[in-house]
Amino acid sequence: MKRPLVSVVIDNHNYGRFLREAVDSVRTLDFPQGDFELIVVDDGSNDDSRAILASYGHRLKAVLQDRQGQATAFNRGFSEAKGEVICLLDSDDVWLPGKLARTIPLFDDPAVGVVQNYLQDVDLGLNPIRFIFPSWPDRYLLEDFLDAKTEYTATSGLAYRRKVLELALPIPKDLFYYLDDYLTTRCLFAASAANVPEVLGYHRVHGGNWCAG
């Protein structure tokens, strides 16, 4: 089966100090470069984020907008994406090399609309923070959510089948937290979620993000 084109969407606002690590973690994946595109939506940054994006030239697609919030940034990224599978990455997080190679093949099953993987919580210097990972089944169905049995990963551990994701879009503009849970739950109404109980990325916990708060 031909491998689907994958779109990687990074949202960013004033995280220039982390942005290059996030971008480079995608560009150095052990996955054919021609099989994915990288889109970075910068949501009105006034630090050095836009200069960093410009330094990559045509190696990524930089989408620049005035400050409108994360929901609008993701909606813009989805509208720019051409892939059959869309993966999300926050600009203060990083992926590990096997991220796409391990998760994308699960979309060969047409019943799968979402794939999620473990993310290791880390500090500013990417040093692991003690974290208890959930015990995931192979799949989540809508019934699992209705029975309060689902445990979701964070944004950077999520990948969506485009035609399933579109059923959840656009994200409401006034939704500023748990956007990832909103999307995953909406997708469960149309497809199953496949779970990969492997650490395939690092989730930074620091004073500037909602998780730390």
Describe it.
By secondary structure, this protein is an alpha/beta fold. Helices cover 24% and strands 27% of the residues. The chain is built from 7 helices and 9 strands. The protein has helices at 16-27, 49-54, 70-80, 99-103, 142-146, 162-165, 179-187; strands spanning 6-12, 36-43, 61-65, 85-90, 94-95, 112-122, 139-140, 158-161, 192-204. Strands 1, 2, 3, 4, 5, 6, 7, 8 and 9 form a 9-stranded mixed β-sheet that branches. Helix 1 links the parallel strand 1 and strand 2. The radius of gyration is 16 Å and the shape is globular.
Structural category is: alpha/beta
Count of runs of 4 or more consecutive helical residues: 7
Average pLDDT confidence is 93
Gross morphology is globular
Helix fraction by DSSP (H/I, runs of at least 4): 10-25%
Work out the number of β strands. 9
- Rg is 16 Å
Separation, N- and C-terminal Cα atoms = 44 Å
Features:
213 residues, alpha/beta, 9-stranded mixed sheet, 7 helices, 9 strands, globular
Quick structural gist:
This protein is α/β, with parallel strands linked by helices and 213 residues long.
Q: Topology, pairings included?
A:
Layout: E1 6-12, H1 16-27, E2 36-43, H2 49-54, E3 61-65, H3 70-80, E4 85-90, E5 94-95, H4 99-103, E6 112-122, E7 139-140, H5 142-146, E8 158-161, H6 162-165, H7 179-187, E9 192-204
Parallel strand pairs: 1-2, 1-4, 2-3, 6-9
Antiparallel strand pairs: 4-8, 5-9, 6-8, 7-9
